[in-house]
Amino acid sequence: MKSLLAFVFCLFGINLIAAQLSLPSFFSDHMVLQRDKPIHFWGKGTPDMLVRVQFLSHTKQARVAKDSTWSVYFKAQDANNLPGAVHISQGREKIVLSNMLIGDVWLCIGQSNMEWPMEKEMHFEEELKNIGQTSLRFYNPTYAGKNVYNRVFSDSIGKRLQVDRFYEGNWQLSDSSTIKTMSAVGYYFGKKIAKEEKIPIGLINLGIGGAPLETFISLTTLKNDLQFSGKTRKDWIHNDNLPVWIRERATQNTKTAANIPSDSLGPNHAYKPGFAYSAGIEPMLGMPIRGIIWYQGESNAQEIERVQEYADLQELMILDYREKWRAPQMPFYWVQLSSIDSTQYKSQYWPLFRDEQRKALERIKYVGMAVSSDIGERNDVHPTNKKDVGERLARWALKDVYGHDVIPSGPLPKKAIYKNGQVIVSFKYGHGLSVSGGQSIKGFSVDGKSQIEAFVVDDNIVIPVSKRPDFLYYGWQPWTKANLINSEKLPASTFKIKVGSTDKN
């Protein structure tokens, strides 16, 4: 049990009164520590006093610096399903964290589809019946403004719009009493890995409903990037370099609210450039993690300018995270946006957005993408089937991180050539090409509009045409009925690909 023998407040940040021994609040009972990396504990204390940390029968000491910080490292450990504890003391003050495991920690970030809880997932009741003892743990803090949409923030929310108060919560066990609040995508991802690897899995969910990508990137990184520095201009709520929708929502939330902190960029808000990074990501940089899963894009897919810049912006974020965590090969797996037919969400841009997400696979190393266009809901931006999404993400991790012999993805186009009155398309992960439901192939076109006939020949797609088209499109509708799958019944990605005249193109 986390206990203090002194009057100690453990908030998310560690900017506390210097005389108090404290840890960041994401250190708590039931947490999972990252295996195979030096184990790091840090916090605040009284300057010049000694902090003593006992962990796994080892003891480390550190003298508190003038700025009230202290930090100790223990040697890297193997995964361990046996619960352990850490004892931290400074004079008469003590903190005890219990029931801790060592395994792999995965960060889950994005917007509402990542945040989406198990209790709203279509397989939830079935999962409840079968849940048992598990080494899956999760840190799912609430954030200021959660579930507050088209209305003004209350004073209490306004006061929490600070980087050291925005997220508040503790680690929890995964059981029938807690599972309902877990990120559904995170849960199915973590459950699959824990089952296959037999190690503890810790999930950190920092998803924020409606959040744009810009809030999860360091403000300094944005400022220093020539392409995106315009996103850091003053008065962010009226900055045309940011998505319109999120600025309209932030205006509704803050226009008459009191007690909202502000700086030269404007009022604090979950959607403010760099804010979620400062509140959630930056405080955790001292804690090793195994990798990141990401489900975001709806808020950046509603204007053509935002769609066209998304792959560059995502790459900037991924490379920055790897640099900050000092992990250049840290895996990063994302969910491709699903299918939808919605004027509210400007779904006319979604085919292009999905293809931009696909093309990011070709330019960034150590990444993967789960296709979800086959399980979208026509009029709802929140598909309730998160099980397939989480398990598809897990396939990438099982292959690339854990060395399993699995196919991680549905078919991804390699090239398209025109030859003898036919367009021939070859695929990566295209073994066993077929169609879902045993129907004829749907989804191919040469203009992005009118469907054309296509056939499977030797794990390629062959399309009869009267002349060589410039491009070939697949799944190029907001709400697509495209149905190409591979031997694992994984769906092909939306794509637009240039058609060459020879097999060298």
From TrEMBL:
**One Pfam family this sequence matches:** SASA
* Keyword Hydrolase carried by entry: yes
Instruction: Give TM segment ranges.
Output: none
Can you supply a Gene Ontology BP term from the record? carbohydrate metabolic process
Where's the Sialate O-acetylesterase domain?
288-397
GO molecular-function terms, A-Z: sialate O-acetylesterase activity
Q: Which UniProt keywords apply?
A: Hydrolase
Write down the Gene3D superfamilies for this protein, in alphabetical order: SGNH hydrolase
- Its recorded name reads Sialate O-acetylesterase
Q: Which organism is it from?
A: Flagellimonas olearia
